């Protein structure tokens, strides 16, 4: 359920703020969202994988905290990020 190097690089290129940005909040949320979607698919096929379910809940909580941080700093960055990722409707 982890991301390979090419997937990570594509996410970084799509969401970075400047040329050398690899750890901004936008990039972190994008990577977490991708991992969450992959793990959700895994858990649909493996109902009894409780350790992965616990990891999924931790990732969702971390993404929620990062999104609240972005919203607190700049509403515009928050709306752009949510719009680009399509994580809230």
Alpha-beta content class: mainly alpha
Oligomer: single chain
Which fold name fills CATH's third level, the topology?
A: Helix Hairpins
Q: Termini distance?
A: 25 Å
Helix and strand element order: HHHH
The CATH first-level class comes to Mainly Alpha
**Would you identify the CATH H-level superfamily?**
S15/NS1, RNA-binding
What are the low-pLDDT stretches, counting only 5+ consecutive residues below 50?
none
What's the architecture in CATH terms?
Orthogonal Bundle
Shape: globular
Radius of gyration: 14 Å
Number of domains: 1
Q: Classify the helix fraction into a percent range.
A: over 70%
Total beta strands: 0
Q: Biggest β-sheet: count, sense, barrel?
A: none
Mean pLDDT: 94
Strand content: under 5%
Helical region count?
A: 4
What does this 3D model show about the protein?
The chain is mostly helical and 89 residues long. It has a single domain, classed as Orthogonal Bundle (Helix Hairpins), CATH 1.10.287. Helices cover 75% and strands 0% of the residues. It contains four helices and no strands. The chain has helices at residues 5-15, 25-45, 50-73, 75-85. The chain is globular and about 40 Å long. It starts with a helix and ends with a helix. The model has no long low-confidence stretch (mean pLDDT 94).
Topology record:
Elements: H1 5-15, H2 25-45, H3 50-73, H4 75-85
Concise structural overview:
The chain is 75% helix and 0% strand.
Fill in the keyword field for this structure.
globular; single chain; Helix Hairpins; mainly alpha; 75% helix; 89 residues
């Amino acid at each position: 359920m982890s991301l390979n190097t090419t997937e990570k690089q594509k996410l970084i290129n799509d969401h970075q703020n400047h040329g050398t940005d690899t750890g901004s909040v936008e990039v972190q949320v994008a990577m977490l969202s991708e991992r969450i979607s992959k793990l959700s698919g895994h858990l649909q096929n493996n109902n009894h994988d409780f350790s992965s379910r616990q990891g999924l809940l931790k990732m969702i909580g971390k993404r929620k905290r990062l999104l609240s941080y972005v919203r607190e700093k700049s509403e515009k960055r928050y709306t752009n990020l949510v719009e680009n990722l399509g994580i809230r409707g």
